[in-house]
Design a protein that fits this description.
By secondary structure, this protein is mainly alpha-helical. The chain is 53% helix and 6% strand. Helix 1 runs antiparallel to helix 4 and helix 1 runs parallel beside helix 5. The longest helix is centred in the first third of the chain and has 24 residues.
């Protein structure tokens, strides 16, 4: 399976205060539709697992042929087992059809996708791929202040935020 060329998730880097404001703007801009979301969650998980496996194989080849790799690549090789464990957990506990239960966006570039996808992409893009707990908490709280979100059980031992 060839690696898919997707644009990087990059946008203007926001401070914690700016992330909070972005949460409010995003909640105001989102329009939810009643049309069910196609069930793609587990298929996307499998595709991401494949990309990670291929990436790790390429990184391992680079290391064994004495090529230098970026610190992020070193981290991935060192922590691959953690990522694989999370993939197994998600596969084991997320029920088939779960993504069909999620509210979908009715318009914009993420139309037809679960709202939670767009919220996550915004947090990742404006955080330069880093997840700062305080910034993320303020971002989601600000969103929730404008548009209420719910926590529901996804089958794991604790509640998952599906952002309904």
């Amino acid at each position: 399976m060839p690696l898919v060329d997707e644009p990087p998730l990059r946008a203007e880097l926001f401070s914690t205060d700016q992330m909070e404001q972005q949460g409010k703007r995003l909640a105001s801009a989102h329009s939810v539709t009643r049309v069910p979301v196609p069930d793609r969650l587990l298929r996307r998980l499998a595709a991401n697992e494949s990309v990670l496996t291929q990436t790790c194989e390429r990184l391992t080849t680079a290391v064994t042929t004495k090529h230098r790799i970026a610190p992020a690549g070193e981290w991935l090789l060192d922590n691959r087992y953690l990522v694989e464990e999370q993939i197994r957990t998600a596969r084991r506990h997320l029920p088939k059809g779960y993504s069909r239960e999620l509210p979908a966006l009715g318009d914009g570039v993420s139309a037809g996708l679960p709202r939670v996808d767009d919220i996550a992409l915004e947090a990742i893009a404006h955080g330069d791929g880093r997840v700062d707990p305080d910034s993320l908490s303020r971002f989601v709280s600000a969103y929730h202040h404008v548009t209420a979100l719910r926590l529901v059980s996804c089958g794991l031992s604790r509640s998952c935020c599906d952002l309904r």
